[in-house]
Amino acid sequence: MTEQEPELHTEQLRLARIFFVLPEPISLPDGYQVVMATGDEGASEFRPDDPQVSLIFHQVNTTQGRTTAAMEAKWKATSRAAGLPPRSEDPMDLELDIEWTVVEALTPWDSPDPILEGDVEHAAHWTPRTDVFARCLYAARQVVRSYRQATETPYGLPTYARAISPVLVYSAGGLRETATVDGETVMLIRPTQDEWDGPVVMLLDHGNFPDPFRGKDFDENIETRFWHWYSEEARGNPLNLWRERWIEARRAHEVLGEEGQAVILANTSCEVMLDAILALLMWEESVVVEDAAAAFEEGKVLRRITKEIAPRLKGSWSTEHGAVGDWYRAAYRLRHRVVHGGYSPSASEGAEALEAAAGLQRFVMDRIAERRTTYYRAALMTVAEEGLRRRDMWSGKIKRFAEDVAPTEPDWRDSYTAWYRDLVAALTP
Questions:
Q1: Residue 205: pLDDT over 50
Q2: Number of C-beta neighbours around residue 335 at 10 A
């Protein structure tokens, strides 16, 4: 009796062959190969039509990199600086050896699922089942995740935001061959062309450039704002603290692709803002620091919203709907899952947390503007004349207060900053 040959199923398809560089090289052997099926990140189980990806890791050395460029830039700067001795050697004579890990990924060109309508313009939100590059990147991320666990090396995971642009894409006709051997499904994808079409140079839609690019031009408006924030940082203004966390949250999402950190920092920025605003309102009410400290019990931000902030600023502060509800669901609760459940949020969840945090900040500023004739100083220190004009609220009592009373009082920012420092000292064990 002879063994029955496994039945072989073949299917014609288009193949993609994609080359991209890991943001940090890993020391797998040159040519190391890994094959996996790629379902959506976080899925509890794989589906029969999850696309397969074959990865080959190439180890490449070059003499070009940011280290080389930074050295050249420093030498150019020293040549302009007065009083320095002439340099005796050209930095470009240095033979630097820069290591790169290039990933070669082979996968079907077509994806089993369509891109969601709301994500069409957000490539970072595309998933392994909706986009060819997303699944190649996902497969590489799984390899790096396993490698850093095995070596206990603190590599950053390759994410869309950290992927180095551009990416090279080739295509060719191919076959998918499927057979069942000893009850296990075995799949092989291979090209049917000797020559591949391409390359197509694919630019990635993110702000994380491998080479440095300067931001906005430094005009008079930016210079004015620069010196304002510089002076406020030097003062230690507590109202600045939440902005730092907010900027870090944006960087985690937009530049690093670290969505868990983005969610944590976005929520932290909100909690810091809420506490700073509550402290500001209490300061304007002339509440004694020792009495105010009782409201700032650690970990009770929701209680402070209900018992302290809402009665002062009025409006709807329900966690079921509106801006507060969006923040509670997309940032506050999700942060809890990340920190206590080890959950890894998606890029779209990171974006939603940032959007919800921004929405809460706008809501708080709107409420302060509405209460401008109860909290004159808080309104002028936060929403300010510009924000009140934008809301068509720069008139009447608040305008007269700003023009007639405010100039006669000691500097509010110094007074509030000192009061806040005493509050923090009272809360410190």
A1: yes
A2: 22
Give the pLDDT confidence of 23-47 residue by residue, as tens digits: 989 989 999 999 998 987 766 677 8
Name the token pair of 34. 């890994």
Q: CA 50, CA 27: separation in Å to the nearest integer?
A: 28
Which of the pair, 2 or 311, is modelled with greater confidence?
A: 311
Give the chain's length.
429
User: Rg of the chain's alpha carbons, rounded to an integer?
Assistant: 28
Digit-coded pLDDT (tens) for 358-414: 999 999 999 999 999 999 999 999 999 999 999 999 999 999 999 999 999 999 999
Task: Write the DSSP string, 145-199.
Answer: HHHHHHHT--PPPP-TTTSPS-EEEEEEEEEEEEEEETTEEEEEEEES-SS-EEE
CA dihedral of 105, 121, 165, 171, whole degrees rounded to 10: 40
Q: What is the value of pTM for the model shown? A: 0.76
Distances (CA, A) of 415 to 1, 196, 233, 321, 421: 95, 70, 15, 36, 10
Q: Is the dihedral of CA 46, 47, 50, 56 positive or negative?
A: positive
Which residues, other chains included, contact 132 with Cβ-Cβ below 8 Å and sequence gap of 6+? 16, 18, 107, 108, 109, 110, 111
| Residue of 340, 338, 363, 359 whose CA lies nearest to 350 | 338
Q: Is the peptide bond before 410 cis (omega within 30 degrees of 0)?
A: no
- Tokens for 330? 């997309």
Domain ranges of the chain: 8-70+89-202, 235-427
Tokens of 427: 């809360």
In terms of C-beta distances under 8 Å and separation of at least 24 residues, what long-range contacts does 182-188 make, across chains too? 186/6, 187/52
CA-to-CA dists, residue 174 to 88, 106, 177, angstroms: 58, 11, 10
Residue 367 structure tokens: 């409420």
